[in-house]
């Protein structure tokens, strides 16, 4: 019975890995940035019936990074450098709000059409909005969901356009900077980097 259980677990892990690599290829080749959409497409291609066995975003991101290093190394490296340079300019603009970079531009898995994800920190969201209005920066307002432990956070997001590159600015409180935030209750904590770290990353890219 134990051997059967181990074999079943091994088969599940292999299936998750196969879906993760299929999803990574879909994201890289079809310029898709939505992990959920890529997972569903990969599951359909693989004929997977049990959607509970889908890999996590972190598994797909690892597979995506490996795929791009193999098949699109030079192109991806140059695009990543451009995106990090744009992110750095935006972070300097938002320096008063202690900006941090997150997402695929930080991790290195960003593709051609990736958005730049920033987190800024203030107790008053209106201050960020006034900051944008004073500088006549056009923006769209939306909301994203993050988790602090099991607690849901409804996070306001300002989306800007920088010469065709979307910059998503999530507004959090200073207290939330010290908390491990996740995109799902079972996911891993979001990695984030302050301005000086992004300067070092850009220099090394």
Question: Layout of SSEs?
Answer:
Layout: H1 2-30, H2 35-46, H3 57-71, H4 73-93, E1 100-102, H5 103-107, E2 116-121, H6 125-134, E3 140-148, E4 151-162, E5 165-172, H7 174-177, E6 181-182, E7 193-194, H8 195-204
Parallel strand pairs: 2-5
Antiparallel strand pairs: 1-2, 1-7, 3-4, 3-6, 4-5
Helix pairs in contact: 1-2, 1-3, 4-8
Characterize the structure shown.
It is a single chain. Helix 1 packs across helix 2 (35-46) and helix 4 runs antiparallel to helix 8. The chain folds into two domains: 2-71, no CATH class; 73-204, 2-Layer Sandwich (Beta Polymerase, domain 2), CATH 3.30.460. It is α+β, with helices and mostly antiparallel strands and 205 residues long. The protein has eight helices and seven strands; from the N terminus they run H-H-H-H-E-H-E-H-E-E-E-H-E-E-H. The protein has helices at residues 2-30, 35-46, 57-71, 73-93, 103-107, 125-134, 174-177, 195-204; strands at 100-102, 116-121, 140-148, 151-162, 165-172, 181-182, 193-194. A hairpin with a 2-residue loop joins strand 3 (140-148) and strand 4 (151-162). The N and C termini lie far apart (50 Å).
């Amino acid at each position: 019975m134990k051997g059967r259980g181990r074999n079943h677990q091994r088969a599940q892990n292999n299936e998750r890995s196969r879906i993760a690599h299929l999803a990574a290829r879909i994201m890289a080749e079809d310029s898709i940035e939505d992990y959920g959409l890529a997972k569903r497409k990969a599951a359909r291609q693989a004929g997977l019936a049990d959607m509970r066995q889908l890999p996590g975003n972190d598994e797909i991101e690892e597979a995506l990074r490996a795929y791009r290093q193999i098949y699109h190394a030079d192109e991806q490296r140059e695009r990543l450098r451009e995106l990090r340079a744009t992110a750095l300019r935006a972070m300097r603009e938002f320096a008063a709000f202690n900006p941090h970079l997150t997402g695929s531009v930080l991790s290195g898995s960003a593709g051609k059409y990736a958005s730049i994800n920033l987190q800024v920190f203030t107790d008053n969201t209106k201050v960020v909005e006034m900051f944008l209005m004073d500088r006549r920066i056009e923006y769209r307002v939306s909301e994203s969901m993050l988790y602090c432990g099991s607690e849901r956070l409804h996070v306001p997001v300002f989306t800007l356009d920088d010469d065709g590159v979307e910059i998503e600015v999530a507004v959090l409180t200073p207290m939330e900077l010290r908390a491990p935030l996740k995109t799902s209750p079972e996911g891993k904590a979001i990695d984030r980097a302050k301005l000086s770290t992004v300067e070092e990353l850009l220099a090394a890219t």
